[in-house]
Design goal:
This protein is an alpha/beta fold and 325 residues long. The protein has helices spanning 14-24, 39-49, 57-63, 81-87, 102-115, 129-138, 163-166, 169-172, 175-185, 265-268, 277-287, 297-316; strands at 5-10, 29-35, 52-54, 68-71, 91-94, 119-121, 145-151, 188-196, 211-218, 223-229, 238-245, 248-252, 258-260, 320-321. The protein has two domains: 5-124 and 276-296, Rossmann fold (3-Layer(aba) Sandwich), CATH 3.40.50.720; 125-272 and 305-321, Dihydrodipicolinate Reductase, domain 2. The strands form two sheets. The protein has an eight-stranded mixed beta sheet. It has a six-stranded parallel beta sheet with strand order 3-2-1-4-5-6, with helices on both faces.
Length: 325
């Protein structure tokens, strides 16, 4: 594709506006239409980019002209925008997690496959230089165990506190760590999870657990563990991802990796800047080469399959097999 790439948005919140800002800096890319349920926000954001504004995504799909659609909505709000856009031949960028219901995810994936359009999910951490350095190192070593912690605060949006809408912290937020576990250590085939709510019972409208722990079994026998909680309301907490590799521990970090007890500059060198996920997606559309895309919808749905299996495991009190997509 040599002509200008027109991009439309369903959802105009903070996450979407971050993508808009980066897209606006890419030569040959324009934002043509923006939809949000909040009419004032849709209008205000659209004016910044000279775009048409909508409050009904079906009207946008019927009336606007665009080559790619960004769907940046809460997990529960994925309806049929992706399916309708794929059917009209538009490429799709979908923010994570892609669904709270696997049946909807399969429906969207089928539409993408049938249409032959490009798809990308917002797991931008895959593109980081530190991630690529860790990936090269781990490809030549046997990983015995992977652990992750995400102990942080409670986001301010009301839907995040509702299990049926967000899927809980493991699914909605700690999905980034789970996705990196998959990307760096391989596929997760079984999950055994336990959840509880120990200290956040007084928060109005909250039914998600405040403590979540899950044990992962990987296809090659690697063991993974993740612990996540949103109870750190005064700051602090933890955000880490570690790989036990023989007698070494590789600690991944967006700002750089650490290897203990020895060092390897190929792994731990200061990371260099890499293209944004929006740059990568636009380049894929421009060239028709999906190899530029760090995470397709299929792969993003696989990450959701892991965390939704964890939710099911916690509900039924036994290990649950993760479907391979």
């Amino acid at each position: 594709m040599s002509q200008e790439i027109a991009v439309a948005f369903v959802g105009a919140g903070g996450n979407a506006q971050g993508h808009m800002g980066r897209l606006a800096e890419i030569e040959g890319v324009s934002i043509s239409a923006i939809c949000d349920l909040d009419a004032e926000r849709a209008s205000s954001v659209a004016k910044q980019y000279g775009a048409a504004d909508y409050t009904d995504y079906r009207r946008l799909l019927d009336e606007a002209q665009f080559d790619a659609l960004y769907v940046c909505v809460p997990p529960f709000a994925h309806e049929d925008a992706e399916v309708l856009a794929a059917r009209r031949g538009c490429h799709l960028f979908v923010e994570k997690p892609v669904v709270v219901d696997m049946d909807k995810g399969y429906e969207i994936l089928e539409a993408i496959d049938n249409a032959g359009v490009l798809s990308c999910v917002g797991y931008q951490l895959r593109l980081l230089d530190s991630t690529q350095r860790a990936r090269r190192y781990l490809a030549t070593h046997t990983v015995a165990m992977v652990t992750a912690h995400r102990w942080g605060g409670l986001p301010g949006v009301p839907w995040w506190k509702v299990m049926a809408q967000s899927g809980g912290q493991l699914h909605e937020q700690t999905t980034h760590q789970v996705d990196l576990m998959r990307y760096l250590a391989g596929e997760i085939v079984e999950v055994y999870a336990h959840y509880s709510r120990r200290v956040m019972d007084d928060i109005e409208g909250m039914d998600i657990p405040d403590s979540q722990g899950a044990l992962f079994k990987f296809l090659d026998g690697t063991i993974g563990m993740v612990a996540t909680s949103p109870m750190m309301g005064q700051g602090g907490g933890a955000n880490d991802l570690r790989f036990l590799v023989g007698d070494h521990v590789l600690s991944w970090g967006a700002g750089g990796n650490a290897l203990d007890p020895d060092d390897d500059p190929e792994v731990t060198a200061a990371p260099v800047d890499t293209p944004s996920i929006d740059d990568a997606f636009m380049e894929a559309i421009r060239t028709g080469d999906g190899g530029h895309i760090p995470c397709s919808y299929r792969s993003g749905l696989q990450t959701s399959a892991v965390t939704l299996a964890a939710n099911e495991s916690a509900r039924v009190g036994r290990p649950v097999e993760v479907p391979m997509i």
